[in-house]
UniProtKB/TrEMBL annotation:
It is a peripheral membrane protein. GO terms for biological process: monosaccharide transmembrane transport. PANTHER family: CARBOHYDRATE TRANSPORT ATP-BINDING PROTEIN MG119-RELATED (PTHR43790), D-ALLOSE IMPORT ATP-BINDING PROTEIN ALSA-RELATED (PTHR43790:SF3). It comes from the Bacteria. This is ABC transporter, ATP-binding protein. It comes from [Clostridium] hylemonae DSM 15053. SMART domains: AAA. Gene3D superfamilies: P-loop containing nucleotide triphosphate hydrolases. The keyword GTP-binding does not apply. GO terms for molecular function: ATP binding; ATP hydrolysis activity. The lineage of its organism: Bacteria, Bacillati, Bacillota, Clostridia, Lachnospirales. Keywords: ATP-binding, Cell membrane, Membrane, Nucleotide-binding, Repeat, Sugar transport, Translocase, Transport.
Length: 517
């Protein structure tokens, strides 16, 4: 989007933009073994504005933010705050420069309490050098009351949902009185109501002159709150413009390097007999009267607001959580699923909504993460067969377009979208008949989303069944053959494809309408 023949007004506007810079980076380079993550990056954020950073997974967004926050050291380049060069060696030092970051992957200690989490790394001490727990409690209660969160300060994080934890991380970041707040996918696991609370906070921070770097794959959010937009692709800055000069199609084209005609690659697939049937499934106090079926060749969606019981239902079917009553049938035969192994043996597998907590083994290689559930294929006759393991895992990685420097690369070094595809490869190695995908596109870019949608289509074309749990109504409407809607632990409606609409789904999701299922 080159501009020629600029007017004086345009030059004056750009001069004001330069004078208003709070933080900028110049000539930043960063390489990891086998890949150049950032290539000569120049980037700046103005005071009191929201600067959105867009790009596919692996474009370098999170790497750049980790350099600004002191988690990574750049190979070369310089960081300036208020036009003064600074060297940021660690997050504590970043905090001293007024930088706070909400990371894409939630980093928390499950056994830690809420108050310990909020003050982690900055616990106040009294005159004799002991932790002032009274002050910690007082401040925690003030934060929770201010944000209208009904939690006990002593409550452990392991008892909270992903949504709860993400909201606490947001509160923790903005409670440090930072001048620069980095938000990396802050809305990936929170409800629409909590998103509105966050946007109110962002407006408040802007009014105080705080600069916000906002990373999100939700383009409607970007265009709602961003003042400026920078697009990264393959570790380089493609373009930077005021948000008012861009539109959705332009940003997506800049991100992926091509125009995407069809976001949802849904195809008509012959539907066969029911593979999975659930009758009167119940978990007291969690969900009840769960009745549904999923046929061969179908993509069946599950919609509902946060806390509706969708994930809990799927966890019970997969054997992660116990259930108190009901029947599960696979291929018309009743099965007893008491643990995950029972589900896998019946060719029913599940991709969790929280890949960091329940999916990946961060320090292990991508190959180990992919093969961990299929070791019986590679360990037999009293010894392992690594050549067969590499060959089969490599084939699935090629099929799913997993971008990794090597099979030995630690999975934590991959982007979120590529981690997700590794986890899908793990289950594909089991050759399942039913694949339950819980929020499969959370926190990944439009390009990676398209690849996962395409994979879902390929799976049902092979005669498999996909169950898709998602909070994103457009993708449910775009990809599913039928959608079940849940509210307060019950299925309140089932819609066929010709009945899909966001308004209808929301009526069932909020309980304002209920149908016989």
């Amino acid at each position: 989007m080159q501009k020629f023949g600029k007017s004086c007004a345009v030059y004056e506007r750009e001069e004001r933009r330069v004078e208003n810079i709070k933080m900028r980076v110049s000539g930043i380079n960063k390489s990891f073994p086998g890949v150049k993550a950032l290539d000569n990056i120049d980037f700046a954020v103005r005071k009191g504005t929201v600067h959105a950073l867009c790009g596919e997974n692996g474009a370098g967004k999170s790497t750049l933010m980790k350099i600004i926050n002191g988690l990574y050291k750049p190979d070369s380049g310089q960081i300036f705050i208020d036009e003064k060069p600074v060297e940021i060696k660690n997050p504590i030092q970043a905090q001293s420069y007024g930088i706070a970051m909400i990371a894409q992957e939630l980093n928390y200690v499950p056994e830690m309490s809420i108050e310990e989490n909020l003050f982690l790394g900055r616990l106040p001490v009294n005159k004799i050098g002991k932790i002032d727990w009274r002050k910690v409690r007082k401040e925690t209660l003030r934060f929770l009351e201010q944000e209208k969160l009904p939690y006990d300060p002593e409550q452990k994080l392991k008892t909270l949902t992903v949504s709860d934890i993400q909201m606490l991380e947001i509160i923790k970041a903005i409670s440090n009185n930072a001048d620069i707040v980095i938000m990396d996918e802050p809305t990936s696991a929170i409800t629409n109501r909590e998103v509105e609370v966050l946007f109110e906070k962002i407006a408040e921070l802007k009014s105080r002159g705080v600069s916000i770097i906002y990373i999100s794959h939700k383009m409607e959010e970007v265009f709602r709150i961003a003042d400026d937009i920078t697009v990264l692709r393959d570790g380089t800055v493609v373009e930077t413009h005021p948000a008012s000069e861009l539109d959705l199609d332009t940003v997506i084209a800049l991100m992926v390097g091509r125009k995407m005609e069809n976001v949802y690659p849904k195809e008509e697939v012959p539907v066969g007999e029911p593979i999975l049937e659930i009758k009167d499934l119940e978990s007291r106090g969690v969900f009840k009267d769960i009745n549904f079926y999923a046929k061969k060749g179908e993509i069946v969606g599950f919609a509902g607001l946060m806390g509706a019981g969708r994930t809990e239902t799927m966890r019970a079917i997969f054997g992660l959580d116990p259930y108190d009553g009901g029947e599960i049938k696979v291929h018309g035969k009743p099965v007893h699923i008491k643990k995950v192994r029972d589900s896998i043996n019946n060719k029913v597998v599940m991709l969790s909504e929280d890949r960091r907590r329940y999916g990946i083994v961060p320090i292990r290689s991508v190959m180990e993460n992919a093969s961990i559930s299929s070791l019986d294929k590679f360990i037999y006759g009293g010894r392992s067969h690594p050549r067969e393991e590499k060959k089969l895992v490599g084939e699935y990685f090629d099929k799913m377009n997993v971008k990794t420097p090597s099979l030995e690369t630690a999975i934590q070094a991959l982007s979120g979208g590529n981690q997700q595809k590794v986890l899908l490869a793990k289950w594909m190695l089991r050759d399942p008949d039913v694949l339950i995908l819980d929020e499969p596109t959370r926190g990944i870019d439009v390009g990676a989303k398209f690849e996962i949608y395409r994979l879902m289509t390929e799976l049902v074309k092979e005669g498999k069944t996909v169950i898709m749990v998602s909070s994103e109504l457009p993708e449910l409407i775009g990809m599913c053959d039928r959608i079940y809607v849940m509210n307060k632990g019950m299925i309140t409606g089932c819609l066929n494809r010709d009945e899909f609409s966001q308004e209808t789904i929301m009526r069932f999701a909020t309980g304002t309408e209920k149908a016989e299922v």
